[in-house]
Amino acid sequence: MALATYDDLKAALSDWLIGHALADRSVDFIAMAEADLNRKLRTRQQQRRSTTEPDGAYVALPLDFAEAVNVTLNESSRQIQQVTFAFADLVRKTETGSPAYFVISGQQMEILPTPQPGDTVEMVYYATIPPLRDTEPSNWLLKRAPDLYLYAALAQAGPYINDENRAALWEKRRDQIITDLNQEAEAAAYSASPLVMRTGSFG
Questions:
Q1: CA neighbours within 13 Å on the CB side: how many for 191?
Q2: Which of 127, 171, 157, 119 lies closest to 31 in space, CA to CA?
Q3: Are 134 and 119 in contact, with CB atoms under 8 Å apart?
Q4: Would you call the peptide bond into 146 cis, given omega within 30 degrees of 0 as the criterion?
Q5: Structure confidence by residue, pLDDT tens digits, 176-202
Q6: Whole-number pLDDT of residue 128
């Protein structure tokens, strides 16, 4: 069976779970799989770019934000670094000058020290997977890795079936495909990096 659309995926789940009376839960399993994949999957297809002017020290994160990749000030090559809440508290009390750090809380990014009016922040980030639904029957992941969608949804069905061997197999296949896709993205990023000649002394 081809896995090209949301309906195809739901039908495949019904076939794989035949005898378990879980066909009507396929929508839930797919949604749970997407939530799980949003925590684990990091591929180049998920990368997005956003440029905005902070409201004081704060930037509202995109609705599909999953994780920051690179954040720069004024669209320059000057990267600002993500820090912990404890370090951010210290910066607020002791540092002034140009922004050098950021911390994420909820749906906001705080830039530290506070940027000047007119400064802009450019962010490259990993976006969450566009959820499948009846009105959006496909997305980049279903086209790129339909097997991952299937095994990820089956893995979510695992706790509801009385078959530990099958459940363990589905989880293993899901995890292997995630690893393969993440490693592929890392290899592509590495190959795209410019070669840098390093000099040093040897004692």
A1: 6
A2: 157
A3: no
A4: no
A5: 999 999 999 888 766 554 544 333 332
A6: 97
